[in-house]
Structures are given as C-alpha cells and as structure tokens.
Design brief:
11 helices, alpha/beta, Gfo/Idh/MocA-like_OxRdtase_N, 15 strands, Gfo/Idh/MocA family oxidoreductase, Dihydrodipicolinate Reductase, domain 2, Rossmann fold, 6-stranded parallel beta sheet, Gfo/Idh/MocA_Oxidoreductase, globular, binds nicotinamide-adenine-dinucleotide, nucleotide binding
C-alpha cells in the first residue's frame, strides 16, 4: 500500500498528466466524489492544460516535477500511446498511485519496461479497461461459470477517431492496440488466456495511399486459439463512416452471449434477453475502484492493474505483429 499524504484525510489529492478528452471524462467523474480533490494538471500543450484547469478548478503545472510538488496521492496518465514511458518512469519512484489510460504504451517493450518499474516500486496501479467493471461483463462472467466456451467472435467496427495522432501507427499503435484491446481484454477476462494468434491486415482507410497521414491498417482479421481449448476470431475496421459496434460474442453448448458497448444479449433455450450497458456507470465504477485502491481498501474490484493490463496489451501486440509477419505468433501470458 502506498503511503498516504498528510492531506489524505481531506480527500485523495489527484493530478493529471495529459488533459484531453479522456482526462476530462475522469475529472468530471472524480469531481462528483466527496473524497477526491482535483489539484493540478500538466500537458505537453499548455493551452490544453489551462482549459482543463479552468473547467475543473485545478492548478496548471509546467511539468511532472511541478505537478508532484503539490504532494499528490494519485496521478492519472491520460496521454496518447506514444507518450507513455518517461511519464510512468518518473511517477514510479514518486510514491503516488497511478491510473494509466489504455493502451499502456504504443509497443510491447515500452510497456514491459514501465511494468517492471511499477513492480519494483510497489506502485498501486489501475488501467482504464473499464468494460470489466460494467454490469454486462460481470453478468456474463457469472453466466459462463462452469460452462465450456467453444467459440468467440470479437469485433470493433468504427470510424477514424478525430484525435490527430490516431492515423499514425507509430503514435497510436494501430486499431487493435489502441481500441480493440478492450475486446481482447474482455475475452481474457471471460474466456481465459489466448495461446496463439494468426492475423492479416488490409490497407489504410481513406484513399488507401497513406498520403493523407492516415497509415494505420484499415482492417484486421485474426484467428485466436485459447489455452483452454476455445477458438475465436477478431475483426476490426476503422474505415466505416460511423461507429457501428464493439463487442464480443461467446458461444457455449447451451448459450450464446453478445457482450459489448450495447450491453449484454443472452440467447438460451429459444429465449433472448437484453440488458443495456450504462457506460457512465462503468466509468464511475472504474474511478471508484481506483480511489478505493489508493485509500487502501481491500482489492475487491475487477479493474485490471498495470501487470494484468499488460497481458492484454501483449495479446494485442501479438495480433498486430502477426499481421506484419504473416506468421502464427505465440502469446506470452
Ligand atoms: N478507456 C477508455 O474508454 C478511453 C476513452 C478515450 C480515450 N482513451 C485513451 O486515453 C488516451 C488519450 O486519449 P484522448 O482521447 O484523451 O486523447 P487527446 O488527444 O484528446 O488527449 C491527449 C492529451 O495528452 C497530451 N500529451 C501528449 N503527450 C504528452 C506528454 N508527453 N506529456 C503530457 N501531455 C501529453 C496532449 O497534448 C493531449 O492534450 C488514449 O490512449 C486513448 O486510447 C481511453
């Protein structure tokens, strides 16, 4: 457990590194907790930090050292994939708990290095793979208890996200690493480890030349072999004109589940039931789980820590690597 700051009794003192879209979402949730104090924020783009500070009443810090000088209990790292590494390495030795937005890095080796630093420092961590703490995933997990999963079909069918770094695979990691990791993480949570993957990828969206700066794969299809015997697929595209769906279908001998951003659909004995996914509730549950972990409450949450999220990142990287190499890639859990 990390040492609490002297001020903790007045609430968990929180700082932010990266103040874009997802940081604002976390800040809005935390502002509704009576045991969170939003203290300071820093961003590579100072104007964004100022806008965030104005919206949420924080200080603006020019860099991470100035941020930490506020005596924080916890820091949210809400930067794009390419920016992970030096930030976490600075935070690991600082005696603060760290919430990292997914993915943990743009590649595997940076994420491994960060994880080793957190482990060595004994840092309390959580990663924003919040599907796990949504009601559909938790209910699906209970339904699958004692059942044998035969086949799994994951998908993420979407438009290009509007953030400027996304179309460059060297900065985002591509769609599987940056987005579909939610689906792969849910597959691990509900079905177990994946032992090997084989993937192929299609050319960039848009005019397909990459001349518009969009050089990520426009589509990926992968075959997965689970260690427990199930087989599965993952299909992604970012070339659609709208966000269609992001979900996982799981088939046992007597049950078909569809679980994802639209909720949980269960088909059993000719009957279909549907429960919606309240994403706002899952976002709240994720931030609550982190704050409770920082406060030293027993770990009862299902939100993954950095070491567990790293396993899903390794799987996403293996899919991406297979699409490049054309080979079946073994996944190291
Ligand atoms: N869990 C979820 O549901 C969810 C949802 C949205 C985004 N995300 C993840 O959050 C991350 C950020 O996404 P976003 O939509 O907020 O992006 P964004 O582009 O809106 O914001 C990122 C911010 O980080 C800043 N930044 C970049 N490098 C930095 C550095 N070295 N130090 C400090 N600040 C730096 C940028 O200036 C920008 O303000 C992505 O990895 C994304 O996948 C997760």
């Amino acid at each position: 457990m990390i040492p609490r700051s002297e001020q903790y009794s007045a609430g968990c003192r929180v700082g932010f590194v990266g103040t874009g879209g997802v940081a604002a979402r976390h800040a809005a949730v935390l502002a509704g907790f009576d045991d969170a104090v939003l203290v300071s924020a820093t961003d590579a783009d100072a104007a964004r930090a100022v806008a965030f500070a104005t919206a949420f009443g924080t200080d603006v810090a020019p860099d991470i050292d100035a941020l930490l000088a506020h005596g924080l209990d916890a820091v949210y790292v809400c930067v794009p994939p390419f920016a992970h590494g030096p930030i976490e390495e600075r935070l690991a030795g600082a005696g603060v708990a760290v919430f990292v937005e997914k993915p943990p890095a743009v590649d595997e080796s940076t994420a491994e290095r960060i994880a080793a630093g957190f482990t060595a420092a004994g840092t309390t961590t959580r990663v924003g793979l919040h599907w796990r703490v949504g009601e559909p995933a938790l209910r699906a997990r209970a339904l699958l208890e004692g059942r044998t999963v035969r086949v799994v079909n994951g998908r993420w069918l979407d438009k290009l996200p509007p953030v400027p770094w996304w179309g460059d695979p060297a900065r985002s990691g591509g769609q599987v690493v940056e987005q579909a990791v939610h689906v792969l993480d849910l597959a691990r949570f509900l079905v177990g480890e994946v032992a090997e993957v084989q993937a192929v990828a299609g050319g960039p969206p848009g005019d397909g030349t990459g001349g518009d700066g969009v050089r990520v794969d426009g589509a990926t299809a992968a075959v997965l072999r689970f260690a427990g015997g199930a087989v599965g697929t993952l299909a992604t595209t970012c070339a659609l004109g709208w966000k269609d769906s992001a979900a996982l279908q799981i088939v046992t001998d007597d049950l078909v589940l569809d679980v994802g951003e639209r909720g949980l659909e269960v088909r059993e004995n000719g009957a279909t039931t549907h429960r919606p996914f309240d994403q706002a509730l899952a976002h709240r549950a994720a931030d609550r789980a982190f704050l409770d972990a920082v406060g030293g409450h027993p770990a009862v949450d299902d939100l993954p820590d950095h070491a567990e999220a790293l396993r899903s990142h390794r799987l996403a990287c293996a899919v991406s690597r297979s699409a490049r190499s054309g080979r079946t890639e073994q996944v190291d859990p």
